[in-house]
Amino acid sequence: MLANLPARLCALALSLFLIAFALPAFAGPFEDAVAKFANDDFSDTDEAIGVVASSGNKLAFPIISALQDGRLMADPDSKKVYVVGADGKSIDAATGEPVASVPDSASAVRLNNRLRRSVDAALGSLTLQSPDLAVRLQAAQSVFKSHEETALEAVDGALAKETNKSVKVALGEARAAILLFKSDATEVEKLEAVATLKARGDQEALALLTGMGDQPASVTKAAASAIGSIQSSLAVWSTVQNAWYGLSLGSVLLLAAIGLAITFGVMGVINMAHGEMVMLGAYTTFVVQEVIRTRYPALFDYSLLIAVPLAFLVSGAIGVLIERSIIRFLYGRPLETLLATWGLSLVLQQAVRTMFGPTNREVGNPSWMSGAFELGQITITYNRLWILCFTLAVFAILLAMLRYTALGLEMRAVTQNRRMAASMGIATSRVDALTFGLGSGIAGIAGVALSQIDNVSPNLGQSYIIDSFMVVVFGGVGNLWGTLVGAFTLGIANKFLEPVAGAVLGKIAILVLIILFIQKRPRGLFALKGRAVEA
Amino acid sequence: MLTKSTHDIAASFSRRGLLAATAGLMLGLASITGAKAADDTIKVGVLHSLSGTMAISETTLKDTILFLIDEQNKKGGVLGKKLEAVVVDPASNWPLFAEKARELITKDKVAVVFGCWTSVSRKSVLPVFKELNNILFYPVQYEGEESERNVFYTGAAPNQQAIPAVDYLMKDEKVKRWVLAGTDYVYPRTTNKILEAYLKSKGVAQEDIMINYTPFGHSDWQTIVADIKKFGSAGKKTAVVSTINGDANVPFYKELGNQGIKAKDIPVVAFSVGEEELAGIDTKPLLGHLAAWNYFQSIKTPANEKFIKEWQAYTKNPKRTTNDPMEAHVIGFNMWVKAVEKVKSTDPDKVIDALPGIEAPNLTGGTSKMLPNHHITKPVFIGEIKGNGQFDVVWKTPSLVPGDAWSKELDGSKDLIGDWVEKKCGNYNVKTNKCLGSGS
């Protein structure tokens, strides 16, 4: 025995030596999992997310949240993984040790949609007890969406501590979603879950209830009745939603048509270049945003407010120029006006195409115009809401201008009876130019708003010109209120037809209806009456 | 009038650019061979809209061909002759495409034409190319169901784009419910017909397929996006397969982003959205939505990096993007050059016979081959939209996919093949062993 001792010691030393060297390989499941992020393989990354999230290691949250934001860097050569903090400082993801710099060969760990769902689910259960209320709410919602059984414990733990009412409700719903899909949950638990989801009553609850698979008979029955009641309440909401969409479409139509209501409606000029005035307004917005982006990035949220007056000036000035140089020679010759302005619209399009290129230009949404909020069961997007408010404001200002200012009075006088106005000392040609400029300027303002929902391309105007004429003719030429009512009527009719007939047929149906309507009432909804009509 | 003048401007511009680029070489040549007239160039027609709605997409392709000709001339041209581009502007006007094609072939005597984007423009020029026997290289993904002797299709057929994309969603994302959304014209309608047949053959029920068409340039997507949201809440994983054309995509994606539909909930895979279309939108809300193409700018291969560098230098724009139809033109152009050099002639009949079997490297590392049905082999990539307007490739086919002229999914065409080498027929029925000819 004793004679063997040196040999045994030697073997022990050797094995210790080996262990010391091989240590990284036996470093435990957490470190192994972290190393997998460096493989650039989607299924390895997925596995790593699962292990890291359930490891209980305090690095789990920084790693997963870095992964979500693209701040988790992996070096494919050394298989090292780093977390780059939001403050720019980096740590080794496996050990938590700070590192001086991340090697250049490291790149952000890539995600695909499946992995993004895994990350959401993992972050959800990791942040259920975050001190930040919004984060907790978000976490409860992602658990609700992923409803994985493993999260149940975390949800129960969070529920016991939660004091905020809305987070509590969200947690309860997440718990219900998990229990509904948990195979060994009791029937009572499942029935409660169905009731909770029924109370939630939205499309996501509906999705869970319809997709829950085989369940005990009593649960299936309860779910069927819950589905029925959710569906009928959603049907009511969908009518409200269509009405809102109609108002929103109507506001866009009104905005596009309101300038035309001046140039065509009040002045009687068939202005085919109206759409291009809208397009110029949109391009003005683009230029304003470019300048702001490069020089004053902090002002980006105000870019639209700055663009509105500028667009009015640009389009208005070009409108005055057009009136002075072309249209004034063509008064009383509608066919020639039509052809001249049509040609003009092509020239303007090609000019913009040459200056800015044929491709679309990016006009960003300021933060206050992005996103949406929920009103009951419908989603209202901020950009549409703001455009509706903006349109109504423009309409009110225009109406007030025509009613209460000297220029407005002169405009009305000239359009109602040119010769009489002239003999009263009004410079009719000046008023003509200003009126046309006003209409064009308002089209420019419309361009600012439309740049938020449509493409900023040289063809922008073409897609609105037909609709604009439709609105003005339908509403009654020469009547601003008619344009307002016409735009909203067409918008709402279109949006109630669209779900039934489809977008293409819906549009055709609207056109046919307008043609029939014009047969019956050639002067539109609100016809002008009196001697002015004959003039 | 307008189009005529644009044509002249464009043509003279291209000639000037060509002259400038090759001035030194020309000078050297001229001193040896003496001054030669323009007869000693080979003329290449470029038939892409430079104005109108399609200008947004087609102008880039015109520039691509000018760039390729420039590069080829630097290498000494073809058969010892310089190439000369003849650029015309069909102005997104389908009948004008046929007129301009006739002008290119009869008046300018071009050896080959690179052009067209929409299927309707291709259909419009077909009779002209048949009658005057010339060659058209068509670089855009299209609905298939065609194989013509005078046309070479370097874009994707449905089995090189749509079907692999659907396969990816089915396998990797486990999608069970499908929205087929498209613009209302021939390409989306045919593609959706093929996809519907394919999905049904894979056991997808009718109620799990929603088909929706919208007019060109549709901008109010509120109702349709809400419908998609509703359709997606039936408890099964849902995806949107989008054949929505060009411009209308921007408001569509904006509405998706605003209504909070994320790619991880309902992914959208698009067949007409490339780097160029994304240049007009803020792509952050679109993170993870997909596109299926045979080429992405972000693919890292030496050939692609070289091409992007030279292209950006040529256009003097370090941010200029590249896209799939451009790559198709690169492949097509190189195949044509190889075929011409093989038969030592630009005679269309000889070149048409020589083209099948010609191979040319594509920019993503493989070698594409011209097939007897006048389509080519291509790899298929699925890319996810990244925050910077580029795509991150998440999946690709293991090998190059040969293009099918006739879809195997449709009853009317599953027995048809195009074979211009042995059968000399574009629509040969393998069941009845008959060529249907041009009558069908």
Summary, kept brief:
Chain B: This is ABC transporter substrate-binding protein. Chain B: It comes from Bradyrhizobium iriomotense. The complex is a heterodimer of chains A (535) and B (440). With 535 residues, chain A is mostly helical.
Outline the structure in words.
The complex is a heterodimer of chains A (535) and B (440). In chain A, a hairpin with a 4-residue loop joins strand 1 (72-75) and strand 2. In chain A, 68% of the residues lie in helices and 4% in strands. Chain A has helices spanning 5-22, 29-36, 42-54, 60-68, 113-126, 133-146, 152-161, 165-181, 187-200, 203-210, 217-266, 274-295, 303-325, 334-356, 382-404, 406-416, 418-423, 428-450, 462-475, 480-501, 503-520, 531-534, and strands at 72-75, 80-84, 90-92, 98-99, 107-108, 372-375, 378-381. Chain A has 22 helices and 7 strands. With 535 residues, chain A is mainly α. In chain A, helix 3 (42-54) packs antiparallel against helix 4. The longest helix of chain A is centred in the middle third of the chain and has 50 residues, at 217-266. Chain A has 3 domains: 28-114, no CATH class; 127-215, no CATH class; 237-534, ABC transporter involved in vitamin B12 uptake, BtuC, CATH 1.10.3470. A 5-stranded antiparallel beta sheet of chain A has the order 4-3-2-1-5. A two-stranded antiparallel sheet of chain A has the order 6-7. Chain A is elongated. With 440 residues, chain B is α/β, with parallel strands linked by helices. Chain B folds into 2 domains: 2-157 and 302-378, 3-Layer(aba) Sandwich (Rossmann fold); 159-299 and 381-402, Response regulator (Rossmann fold), CATH 3.40.50. Chain B is 39% helix and 19% strand. In chain B, the strands form 5 sheets. Chain B has a 7-stranded mixed beta sheet, with helices on both faces. A 5-stranded parallel beta sheet of chain B has the order 2-1-3-4-5, sandwiched between helices. In chain B, strands 17-18-19 form a 3-stranded antiparallel beta sheet, with no helix packed on it. In chain B, a hairpin with a 5-residue loop joins strand 14 (381-385) and strand 15. In chain B, helix 1 (2-33) runs parallel beside helix 2 (55-74), helix 2 runs parallel beside helix 11 and helix 11 crosses helix 12 (348-354). Chain B is globular and about 65 Å long. In chain B, 57% of the residues are buried. Residues 1-37 of chain B have low confidence and may be disordered. Chains A and B meet through helix 5, helix 10, helix 11, helix 14 and helix 15 of A and helix 2, strand 7, helix 7 and helix 8 of B. Chain B: It holds the Pfam family Peripla_BP_5. Chain B: InterPro entries: ABC_urea-bd_UrtA, Peripla_BP_I, TAT_signal.
